[in-house]
Batch of 2 targets.
Target 1
Amino acid sequence: MLSKSEMKACLAGEPTPIVPAVLFSFDGKFTERYEAEVSRMHEMYENDFVTCRPTLEKRAPDPELEPGEFTDDWGSLFCAAPDGVGSHPTRPIVSSVEQWEDYLANKIPLLVPETPATDITSTVAANPDRYVVARFWRTFYERMYMLIGFENLMIEIATGGDLFMRMLKELRDFTIKGIELIAGTGADAVFLADDWGTQRRLQISPTMWRKYFRPGYAAMIDTAHARGLDVWMHSCGHITDVIPDWIDIGLDVIAHLQAAALDLPAIAEAYRGRITFFGGIDVQFNLVNGTRESIREEVRALMDNFHAHEGKYIAAPCNTIMPETPVENVWTLFDAIREFGTLTPPLRQR
């Protein structure tokens, strides 16, 4: 396990004893299926930094729910996927400027310092020499469509609608307020998240992304840096078009590099050393259907392409490891990450 100073060295582009890694990213059903094996994995391996998250104070009572629906702290409505793995938004709860104003006044979750900071401050106190990352997810772009519906949001963005423009500003400000709160907890980084890519392109044009969303992210990053926080961003899918923008506005870490949607060797060639890349290990195909040899080769190639031993790369699966993944493939993955991520790898016995 790496220390706080070693994690900071990696982000600065300096060599570390091992390539930092996040190994444990399991869907709950994978853990249930392989409970004993997962317990053994935790005995042998650990992640190289600590994560936590703020606790939001929910204000709004739940509406009448349809069968299978549930809500989150924001009151957004979701339904579990048919196989129980993951969930998706169901119905919008805001459809007009007037409803948005009511939502802001009465329903948006509260960021009361003593409530959301509790878990973060206790995590920091318990890990004085560890790098602590506070996740603050689904507060900006993704929260928009969770509140008003994806199709409605696309129409609002395309037309520069008044509802969208208000949400853009007010959710940016909410996120900045959360970043400021996290900065006061002693955490080392804030981890934001907005999935921007489909499998082949951005969800909106790069031009519109730059017009509407880049300024908000720049303000978030500037706020965090002014308060001593590194900024990490999770964004799945084909995000190649905006990687230069993330670099330009000072983002520290981009995650999780969805392998099936990106040309990772080309991205490494163009941008390595300019931002810390996190992830890139395919969970959609190779980890599910691959062999020991193909998984090891994927990890080795990623390490080589991103010059991982020079810093600015964090090894990890590109998303959650699904329950259909053979457990032996996960053992192979963990072993390969530590083997190829260590200049003189230790011998491990299972």
Target 2
Amino acid sequence: MRIQRRQFVAASLATAAWPLVANSQSLEKPKLSIAVGGKNLFYYLPLTIAEQLGYFKAEGLDVTIVDFSGGSRALQAVVGGSADVVSGAFEHTINMQAKGQAMRAFVLQGAAPQIVLGTNPKTMPNFKSVADLKGKKIGVTAPGSSTNVLANFVLAKAGLKPSDVSFIGVGAASGAVAAMRSGQIDAMSNLDPVITLLTRSGDLKIVTDTRNVAEAEKVFGGPMPAGCLYAPQAFLDKNPQTVQALTNAMVRANKWIQEAGGGDIIKVVPESYLLGDRAVYIDGFLSAKQAMSTNGLFPAKGAETALRALVSVDAKLGESKLDLNAVYTNDFVKKANAKYPKV
């Protein structure tokens, strides 16, 4: 199986040049940029796989991926016009609709958030419950990002408000690890491979783990779509063939991941993703793999679950008249799965 897959990958890379010429003529915007907040995270692994294995090029796309410290920063890039599409958290589409800006998700990367909230054993050796976090410093990838939303949600269930703690942006790589180990923060809401690295070294005690799909659904009360590609509705309307090409590439990446083992992953991702420890990266991948989308489809009740989570943090959202059907579409994904039923 792995030999066949490597042969397929080699063939796809070898033929990537000619589809670029053939397909780009029918694409409205063959050259575009995708903003992402923490590209090295498993949360965004399908994006890296699509890039590294030439799936975007095979669809006639010339994609530039711009990496930011967190999802909220990536969203700002698209809102500001410096990027076309976001690879980010699904819940941002709901927040933006509430603000009068139509954003729509069109292909899913994560079936569960994969975010872990944990405490620092050095600064909180006597931690017993979430209520103990009052007055503490919590590291998140970036303020306003999905890691911040999860932390807010868990705090709210324990009767705490966001203002009861201090949120500090620590990124999603070595800076986050250093902040935890040095005691700059008392807790962290982050993702793999950062979480696995800190857990293995004894520098993090897990409190809430949404890498496990069942636990994620228990925490949120239903299916909680996570990483996805989304863009302004106007972009989808103007560039349907381009959006379809992006979706095709991402669905192929999703399916490749489901067939891949740890050894396959480390041969494809950049060396910098490994944070200096291949074994930890492989462990992190195996932990996160179950929470990744197998086919790119959004669950029917996903938008409702995401809205409930957001309302628990910002009650005003519950007062807004939102059209949850307008924040995502499975139309492009269905066509992609028909084109690529297998890896």
